Predict the structure.
Amino acid sequence: MIQHFSYKPFFDNQQLPGWTIQFFYKQNRYEGIYEQDGSIKWTGAIPPDEEKVKKMVHELMLFHVYD
């Protein structure tokens, strides 16, 4: 389960798509860039169960950004 999920616009101009994300998963911190198309570019370590984590992140972004 993802904990302490946070995001912020990647660009100062908030009209441009792209967000930096960070969260904890299995007691480790992960960071990445969430693109408009739903892809994630990890800026550090890649989490275990990457596909499962991507689905959880996508659901969170849909809830927070696209509501």
In short: The first strand starts at residue 2 and ends at 9. The chain has a mean pLDDT of 90. The radius of gyration is 11 Å.
